[in-house]
Amino acid sequence: MSDWELITVRTASDGGAVWYSPGERLYKRTGGPEVEEEGEHQRLLADLGFPVPRPIEVGADGKESYFTEPEAGARSLHDLAMAQAEDGDGAVDDSLVDAAAAISSRLLRAQAAHPVEGARAQAQVKAWFHRAGFVEEVFAENPDLDTEEIRALIDTAVDRLAQVPLCHGHLDYGLPNAFPDAVIDWQHHAPAPLGYDVYPMLDISAFKG
């Protein structure tokens, strides 16, 4: 039986947390049903050739959902960048920016090779927009905004978004979730425009993320 050490809570998952087993070098992510769905999605990405740790076990034990995955590395690119910045003049080494570019290139190539298309993608984009934008909560707190015109504008914007090339988006991609050989933490995943993850990450990598 692994001795799981609590690493952090997961703010996007009710009661969720991240645990680590030093002896087995495994991470375990726990929470509600969304965690099990995340684990299955990450398995899909691994099978498609994405640079992600392939979950070893995905399931639920009656109290919570969970999945376990192998350790992606000892230190994320964010950890390395912060250490370099503290040791120097606030800048990071070119080698780290090169590493960020390399893993981002692998992610982008995998995303481009496996586009997300069709009516299901459009429905997923709409669901993600309403969830990430707290649309219903905003309308509940601001009833004057909940009009047919505003809802029609949202639907038009989401429909237009679904017309661009979409891919399996990470939506929280940055140095903290990037390692030299893997991208972790796909809890916010949803269809996204190709390049949406990678471009902003590379734009800020030289500034410690």
Can you count the beta strands? 9
Sketch the topology as an H/E string, one letter per element.
EEEHEEHHHHHEEEEH
Largest sheet: 5 strands, antiparallel
What class would the helix/strand composition place it in? alpha+beta
Helix content percent band: 40-55%
Query: In DSSP terms, counting alpha (H) and pi (I) runs of 4 or more, how many helices?
Result: 7
Instruction: Please state the CA-atom Rg, rounded to the nearest Å.
Output: 19 Å
Tell me the strand order in the biggest sheet: 1-2-3-5-4
Poorly predicted regions: none
Beta-strand residue percentage? 15-25%
How far apart lie the N and C ends? Answer: 37 Å
Mean pLDDT: 89
- What is the overall shape? globular
Question: How many structurally independent domains?
Answer: 3
